[in-house]
Amino acid sequence: MAHYALLDENNIVVQVITGRDETEIINEISDWESFYAEFHNKSCKRTSYNTFGNKHLLGGTPLRGNYAGIGFTYDAERDVFIAPKPFASWELNSETYLWNSPIPYPADGKSYQWDESTTSWIEIPEPSIK
Predict the structure, then answer these.
(1) Alpha-carbon span 44 to 16, nearest angstrom
(2) What is the pLDDT of residues 91-115, one digit of tens each?
(3) Residues 51 and 20 in one domain
(4) 95 and 79 in a common domain
(5) Vertex 50 angle, CA 15 and 85, to 5°
(6) pLDDT in tens, 70-96
(7) 3-class SS at 27?
(8) Number of domains in the chain
(9) Gap between the terminal Cα atoms of the chain
(10) 97 and 78, same structural domain?
(11) Which structural domain, as residue segments, surrounds residue 33?
């Protein structure tokens, strides 16, 4: 089983579908990216469910940087999928194709959320149980 990202005219992922494995040949069809592109009248690129941060989670070869999701951009020059930028201050890591905050997430075991106005991590208080 393989997954394919359907792209709009701006290379934005509009749908991810499950399809034929690239090794399957059915009715002389072996180029499934082209088949699904024509069928859906959209550009189509294969994506790997097991690829995240430009690493294959099961030790295989990563495919296109990250598993595509709706709203991701397909960067044709790099041949990777990139998630939408979460905040203006974050920068794209050119090795993982993931967005990095300007300040690393605290490693103290507490929960935090990003505050773009202060470009800092703000601790989320633990709920009090009464």
Answers:
(1) 9
(2) 999 999 999 999 999 999 999 999 9
(3) yes
(4) no
(5) 55
(6) 999 999 999 999 999 999 999 999 999
(7) coil
(8) 2
(9) 49
(10) no
(11) 1-84
